Amino acid sequence: VFQIAEREGVDFLVHLDVTAGKPTRTRLKEFHKQTIDEQIEYVVKNYPRSEKFKVRLIGGYHDFQWLKAGYNVLYEISLEREDLIYRGYEFSDFKLRRGVPKGKRWPILRAAYHGGENSPYAKSYPLQGYEENILQDVMDLFLTDYPDILCVAGQGIFCDLAGSVVKVLCGIPSLRLITAAEKSKKRKIVVPTLGFIILTIEFIENGEDEFIVRKAVYPFKPILNDYREKISSSEKISKLKEEEREVVKLLEEVGRSKGELSQILDKDIVSIENLIKSLNEKLGEIIEYDTVSQNYFMRKKERAHITVPAIDFKDYFYKTITQGVISDIHLGHIFELPEIAEEAYNEFQKRGVKVVNCIGDITNGLPKHREERKGEVYVWRATELTDLAVKKFPFREGITTYAISGDHDNWFMEEVGYDILDAIVKLRPDIKYCGIQQGEREDEKLIVILRHFNWGTGYAKSYKGQRVIEEDIVKEILANKNYNNKALVVLSGGGHVYCSMFYKGLVFILSPCLQGKTGYISKLGKGPDIGYLIFSLTQSKNGQITKFEIIFFDRRKEAIKIIENRAKR
Q1: d(C-alpha 302, C-alpha 225), whole Å
Q2: What does pTM read for this prediction?
Q3: For a Cys-Cys bond, which of 119, 313, 454, 481 suits 189, CB 3.0-4.6 Å?
């Protein structure tokens, strides 16, 4: 974390939920430091230092277990380390002064911990609930200085959303794996994304928006028992027999029964017992037998100092791909927003984006619900709508758009067999046809999957994205060997809401729309997220995702003004 943070030019670091907390009797074996003094000493001695920034400590669920017992563990740690600054429990607000143009308001960042050992399935649910609870009375909107950026830890995955009261709302990944006791709970916390995030605030001199936020997540692979001395990598192991070395390596990973060792090594139980006895004689009783679990365990011999090798950033951040995302323009509808689509392509061009993904519904399609009688569409015939899309869809020299059709585009296909997207791309060579409501593109070790689903969303914006990953994408990965060892980005349209996640090792983005609030959406009691996206994905030399960054350009205010001005004409 510290090596990457220093390289990326971080001004300050916030760490939420720092210690392992107070162990219960049933979970003592999960802790290698069990007392308050041991945990304080361990953090003070091993927590990294930086000459470039200081760390703000905020107590979370596990730290709070010590507080309930009468010990303020983070305050005690901060007394012994001048670079670690105590900022209380649950949340803390930070005014971002650096870089703010003269006369502009200082944005407020709130870092908060909201979670524990139980968690709902939908990972966005607690984030949305936390933001909702900030507002007690709608009139307070005109009186209270609310946070502009809200980062919430405790759910264990990166999840970025469009806020309502808060402009930027995102979840913070974890730096701990879930334990055996947590896995056994009925309401399990999700297997976390390991990593951390960096927020970069870009201040804007002109325009209504005072700043935009680039959110980058840096995922890590788990390292089990990294606090232990690795016998398998020491000189001692070179003097052992091959089968003895194998036993050491197996038990360093996890506790194992005699039966497991017998099957893996293809030896009888007596031979396994003799191997364990021989190892304990040669290495000094390093293996113990637990009569409750009936497993052998490697004794926890701790490393004197925790050190990590320097990262070779040339290989670690080997290749970066940056792309734009738009969706659901619905040309032909009275609430289309081609003005914002043009702005999006201006932004793409300014930032050097060469590839844009359009995730369906370029047009509003053939009226399926008599929209023409309600005055909601102004063009709906196939030829006229094709010509309109060819004319109004943005064009910029040097930018290629890869598009799939959406369910609205596909209404022509269902009724009269006319593929409107195919007709559009034949007249617009800068737009590439990727398929009917789904498609994919491959770039060496990266696969971009495009999907347009016939869905809205419930309250929890991440729910359907999680289901798509677990019930659809995971099955495709298992069935398609081409996906093996490739980084996956799934882009989805059709929801008219924004949510991006780094979840189960892949990127899922539910794209916002470029259409105002329609009569249909109003009847559902919902409001769309309006805007466009730029994402970048960085891979190491071996193809591992080492950084995912996203910018959501929220244009809800601009959309309301455009539609209001259009109505006055």
Answers
A1: 9
A2: 0.88
A3: 119
What residues contact 308, with CB distance under 8 A and at least 6 apart? 3
- Continuous H helices in 189-268: 242-253, 258-265
Determine the straight-line distance between the first and last CA of the chain, rounded to whole angstroms: 55
CA distance 157 to 471: 19
Q: Is the pLDDT of residue 220 over 80?
A: yes
What does the radius of gyration of the chain's CA atoms come to, in whole angstroms?
27
Q: Could you give the CA distance from residue 492 to residue 456 in angstroms, rounded to a whole number?
A: 12
Contact 87, 57 (CB under 8 A): yes
Q: In Å, how far are 96, 108, 374, 375, 469 from 100, measured between CA atoms?
A: 8, 12, 47, 45, 39
Instruction: Give per-residue pLDDT as tens, 100-126.
Output: 777 777 889 999 999 877 778 888 988
Residue 189 to residues 24, 62, 151, 273, 398, Cα–Cα distance (Å): 19, 14, 19, 37, 45
- Please return the burial class of 255, using the count of CB atoms within 10 Å of its CB with bins 0-12, 13-18 and 19+: middle
DSSP annotation of 429 = T
Q: pLDDT per residue over 5-23, tens digit each? A: 999 999 999 999 999 999 9
Please name the residues in contact with 288: beta carbons below 8 A apart, sequence gap of 6 or more.
296, 297, 299
> Tell me, what DSSP letter sits at residue 96?
-
Any bridge partners for residue 13, and if so which? 55
Cα separation, 199 vs 149, in Å, equals 10
What is the rounded distance in angstroms from the CA atom of residue 437 to the CA atom of residue 464?
Answer: 17
Bridge pairing between strands 400-405 and 355-359: parallel
CB 255 within 8 A of CB 229: no
DSSP assignments along 104-154, one per residue: PPPPEEEEEE---S---SSTHHHHHHHHHHH-S-GGGGGTS---SEEEEEE
Q: Name the residue type at position 300.
A: K
Q: Which residue, among 568, 453, 569, has the nearest Cα to 509 in the 3D structure?
A: 453
150-154, 179-183, 373-377: lowest mean pLDDT where? 179-183
Which residues on neighbouring strands pair with residue 447, listed in sequence order? 442, 488
Strand 446-452 to 487-493 pairing: parallel
For the cut 60, the answer to whether the pLDDT of residue 186 exceeds it is no
Helix, strand, or coil here: 551? strand
Nearest to 157 by CA among 125, 129, 184, 187: 125
